[in-house]
Structures are given as C-alpha cells and as structure tokens.
Design goal:
The protein is mainly beta. Helices cover 6% and strands 42% of the residues. An eight-stranded antiparallel β-barrel has the order 10-11-12-13-14-15-16-17. Strands 3-2-7-8 form a four-stranded antiparallel beta sheet, with no helix packed on it. It has a three-stranded mixed beta sheet with strand order 4-1-9, with no helix packed on it. The longest helix is centred in the N-terminal third of the chain and has 13 residues.
Length: 233
C-alpha cells in the first residue's frame, strides 16, 4: 500500500501547474509585479501654459505602441497645468512595462499633446504644441462684437477649424442684418476676416493664452470703422 505510485507524481505536477500562469481570467491568481526603480506617482507632467487643460480632462500614459492600451492616468487639479501621474511598473494587466518608452498624452485646448517618457531617466516632462499643431489652439467658435464710429454695432460668430480657417462665420449687424464672413487666423494669432458681399473687413489678433482677441473693423465703402473684441468660451 505504501509503494510509490507514479500516477501521484503526475497529479502533483498538474496541481502545481494550475497555480501558475498570467493574470488572465476572473478570480484566478495574477502575475506578481516586478520591482521598479520608480515608485507610483513620481511622474509629473507639465502642460504648456499657452494650452488649457480641461478640469475634467486627464493625462494618459501608455506603452509607445499604437495597439497598446493605457496603463496609467492622472487627473488634473482645477486651475493647474501640472498633473501627477500614478505609474505602476511591473508585468501583467494594468502595469506599465519596465524600462520601456512610454507615450504621455493629454487632450488640451491646443489639441492632443504627446511626449515620450523613458522610466529611470527623468520624473518630469512637458507637453507643448509642435509647430504643425499650433493652429489648434485657436479651434472653436469665437464670439466677436464690433462698434462703429457711426453709432452702429454688430455681433458675430466666428467658428475656426483646425486649419485656422473661419468656417460658417456670420455677423448680425444692427442696421444691415446678416453678414457672411470668411477668413483665417495664422499660427501667431494674426486674424483677418472679410465679408465679400458687404465689404466688411476685420483685422487684429487672437490670443490662445487668455482666449481673447482685439482688432479693427472697417467698412470702406461707407467710411465707417471701429474696434472689435472677441472671446472663446
């Protein structure tokens, strides 16, 4: 009865193997995370001050692979352009790979900003718009109002797309009714708009920092002019 049965060895090996493996499957054991040279929450992300980070937005960290899902996130403090991201390095679902380049991104008023982060090199990175995304800081529907030296006035809606163009711009003039406006803003904020049917011309600048604009409105064929101001809600 006490003689060793080889079948017992096979059974013991099967039990041992059942307790191993990755973290997949609900209720099963998960892969133990490996140790990291960095501790959670030691990655500080600074957003370029010219960009606005929504109070309900977030900064996402993921492996530098388009097919990979995010492995860490940080919620911003209202009114702050610095976000601390809790990064947990290791292996298995929910962990950032150890010593692998990570992609950090945030959805801001300048568009989606990205930068790379390599664990162990630095704990602070800055997200800033590149030259080719600078126009995105002006994207949105600007509200503009102008006042004429003749005593008249008007209010305008100036939707600006990602290429800097005014798309579907229009003004309601107190005495002349609806005026259709086209035009554009460049990466430096120089704004120009005109209404071919009526001759109205707008020129000035938009600021992405305080989301306001100022300039001059002119109606050459009537000799009228005046200032305009704009804001992006």
């Amino acid at each position: 009865m006490n003689k060793w049965d080889p079948r017992r060895l096979v059974l013991l090996m099967a039990v041992a193997l059942a307790g191993c493996g990755g973290g997949g499957g609900g209720g099963g054991t998960s892969t133990t995370p490996t140790s990291s040279t960095l501790t959670p929450s030691d990655l500080t992300v600074t957003i370029d001050p010219s960009c606005q980070l929504p109070a309900n937005g977030s900064v996402i960290v993921a492996p530098a692979n388009a097919a990979s899902s995010a492995c860490a996130a940080g919620l911003p403090t209202a009114g702050s352009n610095q976000v601390t991201v809790a990064v947990l390095y290791g292996s298995g679902a929910g962990y950032c790979p150890v010593n692998m380049a990570l992609l950090v991104s945030a959805n801001t008023s300048c568009g989606v900003l990205t930068n790379s982060f390599i664990p162990g090199q630095t704990s602070t990175i800055t997200l800033a718009p590149a030259a080719n995304t600078a126009l995105q800081q002006f994207v949105g529907t600007w509200s503009l109002s102008y006042h004429c030296n003749c005593g008249g006035s008007g209010s305008c809606s100036m939707p600006i797309d990602s290429t800097g163009k005014i798309v579907g711009g229009s003004c309601q003039d107190a005495s002349r009714g609806t005026i259709i406006v086209s035009g554009a803003v460049d990466a430096s904020g120089n704004f120009n708009g005109d209404a071919p049917s009526s001759g109205d011309v707008f020129s000035g600048t938009l600021s992405s920092i305080n989301r306001t604009g100022t300039g001059t409105w002119v109606l050459p064929n009537a000799g009228d002019s005046g200032p305009w101001t704009a804001s992006l809600p």
